Every structure is written in structure tokens, then in C-alpha cells.
Amino acid sequence: MSQESVTRTKPYVRNGEILADTPWPEGMHRIALGVEYNGADFHGFQSQPSGVLTVQQALEKALSKVANEPVTLVCAGRTDAGVHATGQVVHFDTLAVRPEKAWILGTRPHLPDTISLRWAKEVVPGFHARFSALARTYRYLLSDRPGGSGLLHNQVTWVSRRLDVELMQRGAACLIGEHNFNSFRAAQCQAKSPVRQVNHLHLVRRGDLIVLEIQANAFLHHMVRNIVGVLIAVGAGDKPPEWVAEVLAAQDRTAGGATAKPNGLYLVAVDYPEDFALPRLAPGPLFFPEPVGGFAADGMAATGEIRAGFC
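User: That's the sequence. What structure does it adopt?
Assistant: C-alpha cells below.
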């Protein structure tokens, strides 16, 4: 029998992708968590070799105490330093048997005040926080209130000039659909392809607060922040709405504007197939639970109530 004709079973790797032929260890459980955090004090989500404080590091330390064994985890989207989340999803494998609420309440004393778990659920081995995701949704919060905000200084990006949201929305229209987003990716982006599918992009103004909501199948490094930087230039009157299409067509990062600051950016939702039956929450942040964009289209109420089915 040739080597090519031998069916190779994908071995089990803790937290790894589980295929139909992957053996699942006896007594192992896969747990998914919904995570909220204020990213201002963290050097991003992913653990760093230097040992600087990250969200992943803090979560793994707290979960290890509850599980009474070392816990490592995988996330749906690795956020940068200063970026927040209300709907981050992670998973981990453990031999520990705990009620779902124990993961939430048990980690609370061991987590920084800026991280909280919103839900916990044991999932089938085939679930993977990153590879099972169908789409991610981000919100970017801007304020053009004169003088900014002392209370929300690290949760909203302040712009010194009044922004025209209608012009920004007109410019953003060309970004909907499948495109090469090379003009909106960071130089250090490691993605193999710059092509992404943007499902929706909406902007709304509520007083001095402007909310941009964008959903895509996946995002390039700094993609949302670079989009916001371009739209700020349009909203401030420095560039016409048609300029956004020119930047997109250039497929060159130098054609775009400045990268918006991280403090206004939130990962608010990750969509998965309904079969996984994960909880669904109002997107947030807590001071802006209003459904806009895709959430409004889905008829989600502006509450923090858990709802079944993520899609």
C-alpha cells in the first residue's frame, strides 16, 4: 500500500481544531467563554514572550486557579493594545468538571477589574473560537464634543473638529462587499490575503457620540482603525466622500489617512453557526447598548439579556 493511500488521522492537540477523525481524550471538556475587557491597561490580547500584561495572560492565570490545572486558551480575534471587547469569544480544553457558573464566579476574584466573563458554556469538541467563526463585528466610538470627555477618555476617541456623519456614510458605502483591503492593512499584517468580505458598515450619531459599526468575515491588522482614519478625514471636510473609493482602489496603504487611535475600538460580537447554540448578548459597550446596523436588522432589543443562537 502506498504512503499516499494511508488515511492519516489528525492527532489531538489541546485547544486545537477537531476534525471527524481526531480522537477526543476521555474526560476532556471544551469550554467556551464570552469575555468583556477594557484594553487600556493591556498590551493587547495575546500573551507576549516578554511577559508584559495581556488579556490572555490574565484569563489563563484565573482559569487555571478554578480548574486546578494549567489552562491555555484560543480567542476569536486578537485585539491590539488599548482595544476593548464586549463580545470576545475564547475556548479552552480541560479535565476539570465545573458547573458553567463556576467559571464565571470562580474567576472573578482572580481577574483584574477590567476583565469580566459574560457567559460560559460547555461546547462540542468540533467548536473552535477562531476557525468556527463566520463573522466578527466591531464598533468604533468617536466624540467630537468640544473639550472631549474626562470620564470616557480611554473608551472613546476624541476628534477636535465637528464631523459630518452623512458624508462619512456616503464615503463608506464603497467598502461594502468583497474587496482587496490592502490600503487599509498595517505594514506588519501577516494575513496571506488582503481580500475580505464586509457585510455591513453603518454610522450613527447620538448627540456628541458617533458610532461606526462594521461586520466582516475577518479583519486585517489595523483594518478598522485605518478605515476610521479615512472616514474622519471625510467627515471633517478634508477629503470628499469619493476619496474613500480612490483609497480602496489604490491597494496601497500610503494612499490612506492616519490610523485612528485604539481606545475607541471594540470587538462586540462574533457570529457562529446556530448549531453551537452560543448565547447572544446586546453588543455594547454598556453605555451604548442600542442596536444599530446588523443588530437592528436582526431585531435585537437594546438589553443585556442572553438570547439563544448567534446567527
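The radius of gyration is 20 Å.
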